[in-house]
Amino acid sequence: MTQARQVRLFRNGRNQAVRIPREFELPGREAVIRKVGNRLILEPARRKPLLEVLASMSPLAARDEFPAVDETLTPLDDDPFVVVDTSDRP
Fold it and tell me: Is the pTM of this model over 0.85?
């Protein structure tokens, strides 16, 4: 376990903030903070499972249209950089 280290508190607008030293950095861009007694516990936020994210999305309405496809784009079949498996073709 990493040793404790004293840090500085400062104001960021109306919020109190703390500078987190490099050895305590958390992964990602979000965290969860909770208070237990007089302690603050800061943990990386867990990513939601894909099914949970999809379930929270609203379906497309019938009036919603997809953007127009750029007809000038090269079809993938003609792109020399796309590898196509043709082993099952006659």
Answer: no
